[in-house]
Design brief:
The longest helix is centred in the middle third of the chain and has 24 residues. This protein has one domain. α1 runs antiparallel to α2, α1 packs parallel to α3 and α3 runs antiparallel to α4. It is mainly α. GO terms for molecular function: transmembrane transporter activity. Keywords: Cell membrane, Membrane, Transmembrane, Transmembrane helix, Transport. It holds the Pfam family Multi_Drug_Res. Belongs to the drug/metabolite transporter (DMT) superfamily. Small multidrug resistance (SMR) (TC 2.A.7.1) family.
Length: 108
């Protein structure tokens, strides 16, 4: 269950970052509130995950999910331009997150 909480926390990180972009510098109340709710959800699920997973494992995976996810959202929804070499490093980040999970030996 801890891994599920961690994945949900990472997804909410993508959600709040997207909502923050849509809030236009917190100038739109609805998107601003949604951003804060997303942040609370993300931190809440991360806190639940760290009850059972080591912080040294949970935090980098959480940030990795958020980083890769926000790049994908930025490209698909907002038309952000990403250079080919940058895609290589994004792929390395993704592989790193998977590698951390596979090498922990943790079945929690």
């Amino acid at each position: 269950m801890a891994w599920l909480y961690l994945i949900i926390a990472g997804l909410f990180e993508v959600v709040w970052a997207t909502f923050m972009k849509l809030s236009n510098g917190f100038s739109h109340l609805g998107w601003s509130i949604a951003t804060i709710v997303g942040m609370i959800a993300s931190f809440g699920f991360l806190a639940e995950a760290t009850h059972r997973l080591p912080m040294s494992l949970a935090y980098p995976i959480w940030t990795g999910i958020g980083a890769v996810g926000t790049v994908l959202v930025g490209v698909t929804l907002f038309g952000d331009q990403v250079k080919p070499l940058t895609w290589l490093f994004i792929g390395m980040l993704f592989v790193g997150v998977i590698g951390i999970k596979l090498t922990t030996g943790s079945n929690q």
